[in-house]
Design brief:
Blueprint lengths: L2 H30 L9 E3 L6 E3 L7 E2 L5 E2 L8 E7 L6 H15 L6 E7 L7 H10 L7 E4 L3 H11 L19 E5 L5 E6 L3 H15 L3
Parallel strand pairs: 5-6, 6-7
Antiparallel strand pairs: 1-2, 3-4, 5-8, 8-9
Length: 216
Amino acid sequence: MNIKKIVTSVVLIALASVFLLRGLLNYKSNKATKILPYFGNKELASNKKDTLYHYVPDFSFVNQEGKIITQKNLDGGVYIADYFFCTCQSICPIMSNEMELLAEHFKDNTQVKFISYTVNPENDSVPVLADYAKAHHANPQKWFLVTGDKKELYKLAREGYYLNTDDGDGGPNDFIHTQNFALVDKYKHIRGYYDGTNHKEMLNLIEDIEILLKEY
């Protein structure tokens, strides 16, 4: 038996094992240290050092229980926002089903909440929202389905969440229809957008929520 060949083989196997282990550790490290981006306008703070990122402004709407919902109801964690309407027969049922799955996944996590804004407040009254919420097993403590003044709803979609880029004033002929979900962090900064009709993107959203929660 050639001792030199045996030693060489052992060394090569050892080196291969080291590189494989290092690769796995780097993969796990990179995945764990992924930092989600910030969306929207940003500016330099008055101290010329810190960056001020766009944040979702406060609002006041009514949920499926007839209760006033503001940003305070979403304090203390992250949340996912979308726009829909109850009689939609195209993308909204898919989006609401995906939101229901997300809500079920995080049902025991008090730091994750959900809010769905109607784009059709003329028809989506509190009782209508209540029936829709019941059909999707929405926990009113974690998933708020809200209605209110159309102009305010649409302004928030365009200027708060950047979920729609079309021009509009929230008037009678204005209509927003988007399948995107927005991920918002503890400080009300937008940290991601996801196609609510694409289940693979919902899996990515779950991963990003977990990453975001580790920032706190």
